[in-house]
Amino acid sequence: MSEILGVEVTASSYEAVAKRSLEWAKRGESKAVCFSTVHMLMEAYDDPKFRATLNEMDIVNPDGMPLVWSLRALGERDATRVYGPDATEFLLQAAQDSDIPVAFYGGSEQTLEILVAEVRRRYPQLKIVFTLSPPFRPLTDAEDEEITTQISNSGARMVFVGLGCPKQERWVMEHRGRIPAVLFAVGAAFDFFAGTKAQAPRWMMRSGLEWVFRLVSEPRRLAMRYLKHNPRFVVLILMQLMRRRATND
Protein backbone atom coordinates (compact mmCIF):
# COMPACT_ATOMS: atom_id res chain seq x y z
CA MET A 1 0.00 0.00 0.00
CA SER A 2 1.28 3.47 -0.89
CA GLU A 3 -0.06 6.98 -0.52
CA ILE A 4 -0.96 8.80 -3.73
CA LEU A 5 -1.86 12.46 -3.16
CA GLY A 6 -2.92 11.70 0.39
CA VAL A 7 -4.95 8.54 -0.37
CA GLU A 8 -3.76 5.08 0.63
CA VAL A 9 -4.02 2.89 -2.48
CA THR A 10 -3.45 -0.87 -2.31
CA ALA A 11 -1.25 -2.64 -4.84
CA SER A 12 -3.78 -5.44 -5.23
CA SER A 13 -4.96 -7.92 -7.85
CA TYR A 14 -8.26 -9.45 -8.94
CA GLU A 15 -7.37 -12.69 -7.17
CA ALA A 16 -6.40 -10.94 -3.93
CA VAL A 17 -9.56 -8.81 -3.86
CA ALA A 18 -11.78 -11.84 -4.54
CA LYS A 19 -10.04 -13.94 -1.90
CA ARG A 20 -10.35 -11.33 0.85
CA SER A 21 -13.91 -10.44 -0.15
CA LEU A 22 -15.04 -14.07 -0.06
CA GLU A 23 -13.52 -14.52 3.40
CA TRP A 24 -15.34 -11.43 4.66
CA ALA A 25 -18.61 -12.39 2.94
CA LYS A 26 -18.64 -15.91 4.36
CA ARG A 27 -18.23 -14.49 7.87
CA GLY A 28 -20.90 -11.83 7.27
CA GLU A 29 -18.41 -9.03 7.90
CA SER A 30 -19.28 -5.51 6.80
CA LYS A 31 -16.49 -4.09 4.63
CA ALA A 32 -16.07 -1.35 2.01
CA VAL A 33 -14.13 -1.66 -1.24
CA CYS A 34 -13.70 0.86 -4.05
CA PHE A 35 -11.84 1.21 -7.35
CA SER A 36 -10.02 4.50 -7.62
CA THR A 37 -9.46 6.53 -10.78
CA VAL A 38 -7.67 9.84 -11.31
CA HIS A 39 -11.05 11.54 -11.02
CA MET A 40 -11.66 9.98 -7.61
CA LEU A 41 -8.20 10.88 -6.30
CA MET A 42 -8.55 14.46 -7.45
CA GLU A 43 -11.98 14.74 -5.84
CA ALA A 44 -10.32 13.52 -2.64
CA TYR A 45 -7.42 15.94 -3.07
CA ASP A 46 -9.87 18.85 -3.30
CA ASP A 47 -12.16 17.63 -0.50
CA PRO A 48 -10.51 16.61 2.81
CA LYS A 49 -13.73 14.97 4.03
CA PHE A 50 -13.91 12.76 0.96
CA ARG A 51 -10.19 11.99 1.32
CA ALA A 52 -10.85 10.84 4.87
CA THR A 53 -13.71 8.68 3.57
CA LEU A 54 -11.43 6.91 1.10
CA ASN A 55 -8.75 6.39 3.72
CA GLU A 56 -11.28 4.56 5.90
CA MET A 57 -12.02 2.06 3.10
CA ASP A 58 -10.90 -1.52 3.61
CA ILE A 59 -9.43 -1.64 0.09
CA VAL A 60 -8.84 1.18 -2.39
CA ASN A 61 -7.87 -0.51 -5.66
CA PRO A 62 -5.93 1.19 -8.49
CA ASP A 63 -8.54 1.40 -11.26
CA GLY A 64 -6.57 3.23 -13.94
CA MET A 65 -3.09 2.99 -15.40
CA PRO A 66 -1.98 6.41 -14.06
CA LEU A 67 -2.48 5.04 -10.54
CA VAL A 68 -0.64 1.82 -11.40
CA TRP A 69 2.30 3.81 -12.83
CA SER A 70 2.28 6.00 -9.72
CA LEU A 71 2.36 2.96 -7.42
CA ARG A 72 5.25 1.48 -9.35
CA ALA A 73 7.15 4.76 -9.16
CA LEU A 74 6.55 4.73 -5.40
CA GLY A 75 8.14 1.30 -5.10
CA GLU A 76 5.20 -1.07 -5.66
CA ARG A 77 6.88 -2.81 -8.59
CA ASP A 78 4.24 -5.52 -8.95
CA ALA A 79 1.26 -3.15 -8.96
CA THR A 80 -1.39 -4.01 -11.55
CA ARG A 81 -4.66 -2.44 -12.56
CA VAL A 82 -7.79 -3.66 -10.80
CA TYR A 83 -10.48 -2.36 -13.12
CA GLY A 84 -13.91 -2.06 -11.49
CA PRO A 85 -15.99 -3.69 -14.27
CA ASP A 86 -13.53 -6.60 -14.64
CA ALA A 87 -13.34 -6.98 -10.86
CA THR A 88 -17.15 -7.12 -10.78
CA GLU A 89 -17.12 -10.04 -13.20
CA PHE A 90 -14.40 -11.75 -11.17
CA LEU A 91 -16.35 -11.26 -7.95
CA LEU A 92 -19.66 -12.42 -9.43
CA GLN A 93 -18.03 -15.63 -10.65
CA ALA A 94 -16.47 -16.15 -7.21
CA ALA A 95 -19.84 -15.50 -5.54
CA GLN A 96 -21.55 -18.03 -7.80
CA ASP A 97 -18.86 -20.64 -7.17
CA SER A 98 -19.07 -20.11 -3.39
CA ASP A 99 -22.88 -19.79 -3.19
CA ILE A 100 -22.67 -16.21 -1.88
CA PRO A 101 -25.90 -14.16 -2.28
CA VAL A 102 -25.46 -10.77 -3.96
CA ALA A 103 -27.36 -7.49 -4.32
CA PHE A 104 -27.28 -4.59 -6.76
CA TYR A 105 -28.01 -1.02 -5.65
CA GLY A 106 -27.94 1.91 -8.05
CA GLY A 107 -28.34 2.83 -11.69
CA SER A 108 -31.52 3.82 -13.46
CA GLU A 109 -34.45 1.39 -13.45
CA GLN A 110 -33.83 0.55 -17.11
CA THR A 111 -30.10 0.04 -16.64
CA LEU A 112 -30.62 -2.09 -13.55
CA GLU A 113 -33.20 -4.26 -15.28
CA ILE A 114 -30.87 -4.94 -18.22
CA LEU A 115 -27.92 -5.43 -15.87
CA VAL A 116 -29.70 -8.06 -13.79
CA ALA A 117 -30.87 -9.92 -16.90
CA GLU A 118 -27.31 -9.97 -18.27
CA VAL A 119 -25.86 -11.12 -14.95
CA ARG A 120 -28.43 -13.92 -14.77
CA ARG A 121 -27.49 -14.96 -18.30
CA ARG A 122 -23.77 -15.08 -17.54
CA TYR A 123 -24.05 -16.53 -14.03
CA PRO A 124 -27.20 -18.68 -14.00
CA GLN A 125 -26.47 -20.22 -10.58
CA LEU A 126 -25.78 -16.87 -8.89
CA LYS A 127 -28.18 -15.93 -6.08
CA ILE A 128 -29.41 -12.37 -6.66
CA VAL A 129 -31.47 -11.58 -3.58
CA PHE A 130 -31.98 -7.82 -3.80
CA THR A 131 -32.00 -5.11 -6.48
CA LEU A 132 -33.00 -1.46 -6.24
CA SER A 133 -32.69 1.67 -8.35
CA PRO A 134 -32.94 4.45 -5.75
CA PRO A 135 -34.30 7.92 -6.56
CA PHE A 136 -31.72 10.49 -7.67
CA ARG A 137 -32.76 12.86 -4.89
CA PRO A 138 -31.30 12.50 -1.40
CA LEU A 139 -33.12 9.89 0.67
CA THR A 140 -34.82 10.77 3.91
CA ASP A 141 -33.45 9.11 7.03
CA ALA A 142 -36.53 6.89 7.16
CA GLU A 143 -36.12 5.82 3.53
CA ASP A 144 -32.45 5.08 4.03
CA GLU A 145 -33.15 3.04 7.15
CA GLU A 146 -35.83 1.05 5.33
CA ILE A 147 -33.52 0.27 2.40
CA THR A 148 -30.69 -0.66 4.77
CA THR A 149 -33.01 -3.06 6.59
CA GLN A 150 -34.23 -4.57 3.31
CA ILE A 151 -30.70 -5.24 2.08
CA SER A 152 -29.67 -6.69 5.44
CA ASN A 153 -32.74 -8.92 5.62
CA SER A 154 -32.23 -10.15 2.04
CA GLY A 155 -29.22 -12.17 3.11
CA ALA A 156 -26.90 -10.53 0.56
CA ARG A 157 -23.24 -10.89 1.47
CA MET A 158 -21.88 -8.92 -1.49
CA VAL A 159 -23.53 -5.64 -2.47
CA PHE A 160 -22.54 -3.95 -5.73
CA VAL A 161 -23.20 -0.20 -5.66
CA GLY A 162 -23.35 1.94 -8.79
CA LEU A 163 -24.18 5.54 -7.87
CA GLY A 164 -21.29 7.42 -9.47
CA CYS A 165 -18.27 8.98 -7.79
CA PRO A 166 -18.15 10.32 -5.09
CA LYS A 167 -21.73 9.45 -4.08
CA GLN A 168 -21.19 5.69 -4.15
CA GLU A 169 -18.01 5.81 -2.06
CA ARG A 170 -19.78 7.91 0.57
CA TRP A 171 -22.73 5.49 0.51
CA VAL A 172 -20.65 2.37 1.13
CA MET A 173 -18.82 4.02 4.02
CA GLU A 174 -22.06 5.31 5.53
CA HIS A 175 -23.45 1.77 5.40
CA ARG A 176 -20.39 -0.18 6.45
CA GLY A 177 -21.24 -1.58 9.83
CA ARG A 178 -24.96 -1.36 9.10
CA ILE A 179 -25.19 -4.05 6.41
CA PRO A 180 -23.50 -7.44 7.04
CA ALA A 181 -21.94 -7.62 3.60
CA VAL A 182 -18.97 -6.52 1.54
CA LEU A 183 -19.97 -3.27 -0.17
CA PHE A 184 -18.34 -2.59 -3.54
CA ALA A 185 -18.43 0.88 -5.12
CA VAL A 186 -18.13 -0.19 -8.76
CA GLY A 187 -19.04 2.96 -10.70
CA ALA A 188 -19.64 2.48 -14.42
CA ALA A 189 -19.72 -1.31 -14.15
CA PHE A 190 -23.54 -1.20 -14.14
CA ASP A 191 -23.65 0.70 -17.45
CA PHE A 192 -20.94 -1.43 -19.06
CA PHE A 193 -22.66 -4.68 -18.06
CA ALA A 194 -26.00 -3.41 -19.30
CA GLY A 195 -24.46 -2.12 -22.54
CA THR A 196 -25.84 1.38 -22.00
CA LYS A 197 -22.29 2.75 -22.28
CA ALA A 198 -19.41 1.51 -24.41
CA GLN A 199 -16.07 0.51 -22.96
CA ALA A 200 -12.78 1.67 -24.42
CA PRO A 201 -10.74 -0.83 -26.44
CA ARG A 202 -8.31 -2.82 -24.31
CA TRP A 203 -5.27 -1.27 -25.99
CA MET A 204 -6.46 2.18 -24.92
CA MET A 205 -6.94 0.93 -21.36
CA ARG A 206 -3.43 -0.53 -21.26
CA SER A 207 -1.98 2.71 -22.64
CA GLY A 208 -3.74 4.93 -20.12
CA LEU A 209 -5.87 6.47 -22.88
CA GLU A 210 -9.26 5.29 -21.71
CA TRP A 211 -10.13 8.86 -20.74
CA VAL A 212 -9.81 9.90 -24.40
CA PHE A 213 -12.39 7.31 -25.45
CA ARG A 214 -14.77 8.33 -22.68
CA LEU A 215 -14.31 12.03 -23.46
CA VAL A 216 -15.17 11.46 -27.13
CA SER A 217 -18.16 9.32 -26.08
CA GLU A 218 -19.53 11.84 -23.56
CA PRO A 219 -17.88 15.22 -24.24
CA ARG A 220 -20.57 17.36 -22.65
CA ARG A 221 -20.55 15.46 -19.36
CA LEU A 222 -16.84 14.67 -19.04
CA ALA A 223 -14.96 17.55 -20.70
CA MET A 224 -14.72 19.73 -17.61
CA ARG A 225 -13.81 16.75 -15.41
CA TYR A 226 -10.84 15.73 -17.53
CA LEU A 227 -9.70 19.26 -18.30
CA LYS A 228 -9.77 20.09 -14.61
CA HIS A 229 -8.35 16.92 -13.10
CA ASN A 230 -5.94 15.22 -15.51
CA PRO A 231 -3.31 17.98 -15.93
CA ARG A 232 -3.37 18.71 -12.20
CA PHE A 233 -2.89 15.04 -11.36
CA VAL A 234 0.21 14.82 -13.56
CA VAL A 235 1.75 17.92 -11.97
CA LEU A 236 0.89 16.89 -8.42
CA ILE A 237 2.13 13.31 -8.68
CA LEU A 238 5.38 14.50 -10.27
CA MET A 239 5.81 16.93 -7.37
CA GLN A 240 5.15 14.11 -4.90
CA LEU A 241 7.74 11.88 -6.59
CA MET A 242 10.29 14.71 -6.66
CA ARG A 243 9.77 15.39 -2.95
CA ARG A 244 10.17 11.68 -2.22
CA ARG A 245 13.38 11.49 -4.21
CA ALA A 246 14.78 14.59 -2.49
CA THR A 247 13.94 13.15 0.93
CA ASN A 248 15.56 9.80 0.08
CA ASP A 249 18.67 11.52 -1.23
**Helical percentage:** 55-70%
The radius of gyration is 18 Å
Number of distinct beta strands: 8
β-strand percent reads 5-15%
Please write the string of helix (H) and strand (E) elements: EEHEHHEHHEHEHEHEHHHH
Strand order of the largest sheet: 4-3-8-7-5-6
Separation of the first and last Cα atoms: 22 Å
Count of DSSP-assigned helices:
12
The backbone outline, from C-alpha atoms, is: globular
Write down the overall mean pLDDT.
Answer: 94
Q: Note the main sheet.
A: 6 strands, parallel
Structural class: alpha/beta
Low-confidence runs = none
Tell me the number of structural domains.
1
Report on this model:
By secondary structure, this protein is α/β, with parallel strands linked by helices. Helix content is 57%, strand content 14%. It has helices at 14-27, 38-46, 48-55, 65-73, 84-98, 109-122, 141-154, 167-175, 189-194, 202-206, 210-217, 219-248; strands spanning 2-4, 7-9, 31-36, 59-62, 102-106, 128-132, 158-162, 182-185. The strands form two sheets. Strands 4-3-8-7-5-6 form a six-stranded parallel beta sheet, with helices on both faces. Helix 1 (14-27) packs across helix 5, helix 2 crosses helix 3 (48-55) and helix 2 (38-46) packs across helix 12 (219-248). The longest helix has 30 residues, at 219-248. It starts with a strand and ends with a helix.
